[in-house]
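About this split. The held-out portion is used to measure sequence recovery: a designer receives only the structure tokens and must propose an amino acid at every position. Recovery is the fraction of positions where the proposal matches the reference. Here is one held-out target exactly as it appears in the evaluation file.
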């Protein structure tokens, strides 16, 4: 299907009501989602009128948690919606990766607030389920796919309409009665239950069986770990609409009160490790004779592990058997302890408990590792427990990597902090923390750059170049980020195409400028060679290059090395090299610009002009000064900042030690030792010198006081300490001589 003004790229979803494509709005060049409705929905003029009403109603929704509709229409009897593109997957996909209990609450609250918004406009959703709860790439959620009958037939007298998905339908929906906002909240309650347990509460082989359970089965009980939500669940899943929450806002307030009371469990809900068949084996469908209760448990059987007992030790036990009815000699208890029989029962019990915890995907790493360590407290050589701890830590690291790959940074941070709390000395933790920080920064940059391109369009050259810089920084932080690479390819293709058009129009200067932009985006892009050849073939090429080299030389003399934007020596040299990569004059000129910028950087670093350095680095990257120069400046800049921060920390530490009287003791850490470390990092640090002199003066004062009361040994000791710090103070040297203290 072709929709004027839009380009449809690929199919990303389909359902009973139509298909969803990823697309691009040609004028603004922003990415969109295009929903194409099945023809059956518009088979009559009445249905087409309903579609118009439905589309107009949802297109005016303006809520952060409701998908935005930019445009809609009908072509050849087929309806379509142009919508906000949501790239973070649906709720089911997020649950596979894992959501913390706090995030579960936030999702339910956001959907409740979105429902409250539409209910206040006398319309309802009609099909609330995980597939219609989508995540933006930054983590916020949107409610999508409003059912047409929920708009056209709103809450007033919609009897006879049976819409929705059986597992999530309210009793009144199933019965074909009038539906409205209470039905949406009931469906949200089913979603809430599924998020907490991994299963919908009412299940069956067909829609009729599922509907019967909605109507007849009691409200299910939540597991112990989620029992704080039982009252909320009973109200939201009440069979009668009047017994449910009055609004989404009321539900959100109740969840807030539960959270503020501190009842939320510190757990992560994840569904990717549990298959439905496994859950069914433990928790059968509610309403059947085998409903789970406190008497039904799942036994975890494991063969008992005992230590090997040699034949000789067994014989000793037999010979000692006669003592069982009398006083046992001390040797008997020693032999029994040696065999390990006394510990086997306890080890087995602890092992089974640890294994059960490990098999539960909702358990924390802390709980699992502590359980296995209890086994090791009794049997320090228990190889299975050691291996289990190593495997748990390794799996946790894999889970952290998976969370980072899916951009679930909150989950990654929770898991990483827990890993750190249990294995603080693990050498890989520092790398994982750095990786998480880099991925998070890369994700923010990627989103900002993508929004910049979508909002401004590629024809805004300043915005596009800023986006190119950001995409390159994303790849530096996350080399495997294919989305950033894809965006750079698209920008390179765009500028290469425009450069080719400019060559055809005879505007070589514009063409070279555009080609330079394409090279900045991706110097290896396959179309660049063709565009270069087109420019080379232009008759006035050489004259244009010579003119540009003269301009660049003049700008260098004036000091316009990388400023102002577009009119500086570096960018002009790049334009020449984009067309003629082997041009020796341009290469040499660019190298000279790099050396001059390094000299300027050195001067600003010495004078600690950090704001000016930031601007210099930003412009150096923007003009493509070169990785070697930029990397050297960044490295030296970061080293200097770390050095200054370390000096600052040492000075603060020395002050605390001085204030608390730790001038020279203890030997390893005292005010004087710390201040001397400062002078190692910064030999001319005036604050350190002043505080050392202050410390020495205090020591000399203590020496005088000691001498005044006749403590000659102590007086000499403190005077020597003062002279060790400040050996050139003549007054103290005279005191030492008059007191008869031997100097060093």
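Reference sequence for scoring:
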């Amino acid at each position: 299907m072709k929709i004027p003004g839009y380009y449809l790229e690929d199919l990303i979803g389909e359902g009973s009501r139509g298909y969803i494509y990823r697309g691009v709005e040609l004028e603004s060049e922003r990415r969109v989602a295009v929903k194409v409705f099945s023809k059956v929905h518009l088979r009559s003029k009445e249905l087409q009128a309903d579609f118009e009403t439905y589309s107009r109603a949802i297109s005016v929704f303006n809520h952060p948690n409701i998908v935005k509709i930019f445009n809609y229409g009908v072509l050849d009897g087929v309806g379509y919606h142009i919508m906000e593109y949501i790239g973070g997957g649906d709720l089911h996909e997020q649950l596979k990766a894992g959501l913390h209990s706090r995030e579960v609450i936030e999702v339910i609250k956001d959907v409740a607030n979105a429902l409250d918004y539409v209910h206040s406009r006398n319309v309802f959703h009609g099909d609330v389920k995980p597939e219609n709860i989508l995540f933006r790439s930054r983590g916020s959620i949107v409610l999508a796919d409003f059912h047409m009958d929920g708009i056209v037939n709103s809450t007033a007298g919609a009897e006879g309409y049976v819409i929705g998905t059986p597992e999530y339908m309210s009793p009144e929906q199933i019965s074909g009665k009038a539906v409205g906002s209470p039905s949406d909240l009931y469906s949200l309650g089913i979603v809430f239950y599924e998020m907490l347990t991994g299963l919908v509460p009412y299940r069956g082989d067909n829609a009729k069986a599922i509907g019967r359970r909605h109507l007849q089965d009691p409200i299910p009980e939540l597991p112990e770990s989620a029992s704080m939500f039982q009252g909320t669940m009973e109200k939201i899943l009440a069979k009668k609409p009047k017994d449910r929450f009055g609004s989404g806002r009321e539900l959100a307030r109740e969840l807030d009160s539960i959270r503020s009371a501190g009842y939320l469990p510190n757990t992560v809900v994840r569904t990717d490790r549990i298959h439905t068949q496994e859950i069914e084996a433990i928790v059968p469908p509610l309403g059947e004779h085998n409903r789970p209760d406190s008497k039904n448990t799942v036994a975890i059987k494991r063969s008992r592990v005992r230590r090997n007992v040699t034949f000789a030790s067994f014989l000793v036990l037999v010979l000692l058997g006669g003592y069982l009815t009398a006083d046992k000699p001390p040797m008997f208890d020693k032999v029994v302890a040696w065999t390990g029989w006394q510990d086997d029962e306890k080890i087995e019990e602890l092992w089974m408990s640890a294994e059960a915890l490990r098999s539960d995907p909702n358990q924390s790493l802390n709980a699992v590792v502590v359980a296995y360590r209890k086994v090791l407290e009794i049997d320090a050589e228990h190889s299975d427990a050691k291996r289990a701890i190593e495997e748990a830590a390794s799996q946790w690291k894999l889970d952290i990597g998976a969370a980072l790959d899916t951009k679930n940074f909150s989950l990654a941070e929770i898991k990483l902090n827990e890993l750190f709390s249990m294995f603080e000395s693990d050498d890989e933790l520092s790398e994982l923390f750095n990786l998480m920080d880099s991925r998070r920064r890369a994700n923010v940059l990627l989103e900002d750059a993508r929004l910049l391109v979508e909002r401004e369009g590629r024809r805004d050259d300043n915005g596009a170049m800023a986006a190119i810089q950001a995409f390159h920084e994303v790849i530096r932080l996350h080399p495997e980020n294919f989305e950033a690479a894809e965006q750079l390819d698209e920008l390179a293709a765009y500028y290469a195409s425009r450069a080719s058009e400019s060559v055809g129009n005879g505007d070589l200067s514009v063409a070279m400028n555009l080609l330079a932009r394409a090279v900045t985006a991706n110097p290896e892009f396959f179309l660049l060679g063709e565009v270069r050849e087109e420019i080379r073939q232009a008759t006035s090429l050489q004259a244009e290059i010579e003119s540009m080299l003269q301009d660049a030389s003049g700008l260098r003399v004036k000091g316009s090395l990388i400023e102002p934007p577009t009119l500086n020596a570096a960018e002009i040299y790049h334009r020449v090299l984009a067309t003629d990569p082997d041009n020796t004059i341009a290469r040499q000129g660019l190298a000279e610009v790099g050396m001059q910028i390094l000299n300027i950087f050195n001067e600003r670093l010495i004078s600690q002009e950090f704001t000016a350095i930031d601007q210099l680095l930003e412009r150096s990257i923007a003009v493509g000064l070169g990785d070697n120069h930029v990397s050297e400046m960044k490295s030296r800049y970061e080293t200097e900042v770390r050095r200054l921060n370390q000096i600052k920390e040492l000075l603060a530490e020395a002050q605390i030690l001085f204030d608390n009287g730790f001038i020279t003791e203890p030997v390893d850490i005292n005010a004087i030792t710390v201040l001397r470390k400062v002078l190692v990092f910064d030999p001319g640090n005036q604050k350190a010198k002043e505080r050392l002199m202050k410390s020495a003066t205090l020591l000399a004062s203590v020496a005088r006081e000691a001498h005044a009361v006749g403590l000659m040994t102590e007086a000499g000791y403190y005077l020597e300490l003062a002279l060790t710090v400040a050996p050139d103070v003549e007054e103290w040297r005279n005191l030492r001589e008059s007191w008869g203290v031997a100097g060093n």
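Annotator remark: Residues 539-625 form one domain.
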